[in-house]
From TrEMBL:
Keyword annotations from UniProtKB, A to Z: Carboxypeptidase, Hydrolase, Protease, Signal
Entry GO MF terms: serine-type D-Ala-D-Ala carboxypeptidase activity
Protein name: D-alanyl-D-alanine carboxypeptidase/D-alanyl-D-alanine-endopeptidase
Pfam families (UniProt xref): Peptidase_S13
Gene: dacB
Record-stated family: Belongs to the peptidase S13 family.
Membrane-crossing residue ranges in chain numbering: none
Length: 467
């Protein structure tokens, strides 16, 4: 903090209590960056540099979606996944088709699927004579994330899905004990082939196992090769495999087989018959838990699911992405925030098209911090030097700083709050757009640090003025 206080003494910051000074951009060009900061407890902004410019926010867009989700759905909102069938059960055999009615639960995993299928076994069903049919009618579509073709197989590109399971990734579990180096697939998807050529890597450290072995995926095949140190015994790495519906089918097959069930006889997609009896159901964790993972770890799939869920609740059966956009815009307008600079594609910031202004994002921060779910919203943000995407940043500032990060090619962004020792809070937004963005992370961090130093321990006290 001493080096930042030195900058304060040198008079290089913007303004405090009405005293204007030059904003130190730390090597950034004025047209590359937008900066906005204002006290949460009320008062005029401390800095407004290109605050109304339309900027690509990358993952700081998740804050807009999170704010809308808390307001429209509530922190206790849950997704319900159901297995239904109108077919009779005779001597432990379901005599017809079983429908998996998906809700898009963003954190539904293999354990949840085993528990769901276990309800069928507890009902006495041991065989599904008909087909497993996926009812995918909850959304009209999953929206778009265009111009990321080169990243199609990356886990962050997994699209939301009504039957999403394990975020559509499987895990590779590595072992190197008395039986030698080897790898297993978890869950054991029956249609995925796994081949491995692993040798003993000796007594060296493991670190990230993905740096020790080569993992390649192609359709329904996974190959692993390399030297596996003994310290990697128990290490895990995820892989993105299969198309969404095929991943769901094989996940169900693995769960049903683990439970000792037989069938189903086939597979497909169809809308469940109206009024079909519910044979099993699973309620998700509350939305608040999803927000934690969405923002702490910048999960694109979860953010896009929240966006689509807003659309489903806004207008069931309509164009879901369009309804989601209406819901977000209506939330902003109702809060008195102009949506003029807003461009939405999927609500996650995984977009070359999405735009906000620093002022809009800042006003969302102010509205969230002053609203009924302020604690829930702020608890979802990464804590500087401690967790999430800020675990290795701002260690000198520490836990008083909570900010959402944003990273894309040509984009770096930060948006969040600093809590002063006085107990008052400063909302801060810094967005960098341009071909040099990748190299300007440190400059962006320095701007944030300067604003914190400028505000000082008695941040915002007596800074009267309108918003």
């Amino acid at each position: 903090m001493q080096r930042w206080m030195g900058r304060l003494a040198a008079g290089v910051l913007v303004l405090c209590s009405g005293m204007a000074q030059a904003l130190d951009l730390h090597g950034l060009k004025p047209g590359e960056v937008a900066v906005w900061a204002a006290p949460v407890e009320g008062g005029a902004p401390l800095v407004e540099h290109r605050a109304d410019a339309a900027m690509n926010p990358a993952s700081t867009m998740k804050l807009v979606t999170s704010y809308a989700a808390l307001g429209r759905l509530g922190p206790g909102y849950r997704w319900t996944t159901r297995l239904v069938s109108a077919a009779p059960i005779v001597d432990g055999v379901l005599q017809g088709d079983l429908y998996w009615v998906g809700s898009g639960d963003p954190r539904f995993d293999q354990r949840d699927l085993i528990e769901l299928a276990g309800e069928l076994r507890r009902r006495g069903i041991r065989e599904i004579a008909g087909r497993l049919l996926l009812d995918r009618s909850v959304w009209s579509g999953t929206g778009r994330a265009d111009d990321f073709d080169g990243d199609a197989e990356r886990a962050f590109m997994v699209a939301p899905d009504p039957q999403l399971t394990n975020l559509k990734v499987a895990w590779l579990a590595f072992y190197n004990d008395e039986l030698g180096p080897r790898v297993a697939l978890d869950p054991a998807l029956p249609g995925v082939s796994l081949s491995a050529k692993l040798s003993d890597g000796g007594a060296g450290a493991c670190g990230d196992v993905r740096n020790r072995v080569a993992i390649r995926t192609a359709g329904d095949s996974i190959s692993v090769s390399g030297q596996l140190p003994q310290a990697c015994d128990g290490a895990r790495a995820f892989v993105n495999v299969l198309a969404p519906t095929e991943f769901a089918r094989q996940s169900f097959a693995a769960a049903w087989r683990e439970l000792g069930g037989t069938g189903p006889a086939g597979f497909g997609t169809a809308v469940a018959p109206a009024g079909a009896p519910v044979l099993a159901s699973h309620d998700s964790e509350p939305l608040l838990d999803t927000l934690y993972y969405t923002n702490k770890y910048s999960n694109n799939t979860m953010a896009r699911t929240l966006f689509l869920t807003l659309g489903h609740e806004e207008a069931p059966g309509s164009d879901t992405p369009a309804a989601a956009e209406r819901a977000v815009r209506r939330t902003l307008v109702e809060a008195g925030i102009s949506d003029a600079p807003l461009v939405l594609e999927n609500g996650a910031g995984l977009s070359r098209r999405e735009r906000v202004s620093a002022r809009l994002l800042g006003q969302v921060l102010l509205a969230a911090a002053r609203g009924p779910y302020a604690g829930e919203f702020m608890a979802s943000l990464p804590i500087a030097g401690e967790d999430g995407t800020l675990k290795k940043r701002f260690a000198d500032v520490g836990s008083r700083l909570r900010m959402k990060t944003g990273t894309l090619k040509d984009v770096r962004a930060l948006a969040g709050y600093w809590l002063a020792p006085s107990g008052q809070r400063l909302a801060i937004v810094v967005i960098v757009n341009g071909p040099r963005a990748l190299q300007q992370t440190a400059a962006m961090d320095d701007i944030v640090a300067d604003l914190i130093a400028q505000a000082g321990p008695h941040c915002c006290a007596g800074m009267a003025g309108g918003q």
